[in-house]
Amino acid sequence: MVMLSQQAVRNVIGLIGNVISFGLFLSPVPTFVQIIKKKAVEQFSPIPYLATLLNCMMWFLYGLPIVHPHSILVVTINGIGLVIESAYLTIFFIYATREGRLKVLKILAGELAFMTVVVVAVLLAAHTHEKRSLIVGILCIIFGTCMYASPLAVMVRPHWKHCKVRASVIAALCLMAYPRICHGRLTRSGPALRVPMDNHGAIAQSLAQIVTTIAAGFYFICYIGQERRHSDHAAMCHRRIGKKLVIQTKSVEYMPFTLSLASFLNGACWTTYSCLPFDINLFIPNGLGALFGFLQLILYACYFKSTPKKVAKAEVELHSARNV
């Protein structure tokens, strides 16, 4: 009986993850076919695609040999994601209004400027794979989490878009402070303050979990606060994040089964990949993605029978790529 090595198993799981992620990247194709036919973007938002583009850029950087060696599968799928998301945004830009185009250009310019700063800072300030992986990995955790959360902007409608902006600001402040905190903990001189290299992973894990929890908690608080101000019925203020429309209407019109299933499988696959060997930077965002996908499947099972048949063909913009 042939025994596969851990690396071989990891490569197989990574290849499966690439296939599933590729399918997720292609999931919005019907939406853009509709946009091309109507020659208008209507109410579709570019935010999920911009979020996924930034996420792909961060993970592409993370997987490069100069940052985190032996991660070629992370580079390949996110390189493909960059091309696909760029195509989506090009189509959106062509058919959007002048205001919509300006919005896309502003956000895209901000993302490119941010990536330039990150690349320069990482290459000049961090001179080991450990430190580069630490800094870029934390940014990947934050943006990966935001990417999984970005479809909520569509699911809960515009009520909390201003909250999302505030949450993004808080997340940005966290990610700006976090590498500095880690750098200070890892490099301060003095016998009593020197941290051994073996402890880098433990420190990174602890702080990463804290930052991610704070960011996610802030999203929850913002949403609940907005719901209390905008809801016509106080009794509905306990609705769960991202599932308000499903629970309120008892319909899965806004939750396509195939996309929810693919999101769950994608998150589960890359979570498994992150355990061979354990990589906290891959584990956290993809673990959350698997959890979100699983919760969506539960809701789908609960409300599938109560969904009117006439909405079976409804198209919804819920793009959550899992990439890594």
Features:
single chain, 324 residues, 71% helix, globular, disordered C terminus
Structural features, described:
- Forms homooligomers and/or heterooligomers.
- Belongs to the SWEET sugar transporter family.
- This is Bidirectional sugar transporter SWEET.
- InterPro entries: SWEET, SWEET_rpt.
- By secondary structure, this protein is mainly alpha-helical.
- The chain has one domain.
- The chain contains 12 helices and no strands.
- Helix 1 packs antiparallel against helix 11 and helix 2 runs parallel beside helix 4.
- The radius of gyration is 20 Å and the shape is globular.
- The C terminus is likely disordered.
Quick summary:
The protein contains twelve helices and no strands. With 324 residues, it is mainly α.
Query: Uncertain segments of ≥5 residues (pLDDT<50)?
Result: 153-242, 310-322
Largest sheet: none
Instruction: Classify the helix fraction into a percent range.
Output: over 70%
Number of domains: 1
Number of helices: 12
Tell me the distance between the termini.
33 Å
- Overall 3D form: globular
The portion of residues forming beta strands comes to under 5%
Compute the number of strand runs.
Answer: 0
Please give the structural blueprint.
Layout: H1 6-26, H2 29-38, H3 47-63, H4 72-95, H5 98-125, H6 129-149, H7 152-155, H8 161-187, H9 200-230, H10 244-249, H11 257-274, H12 280-303
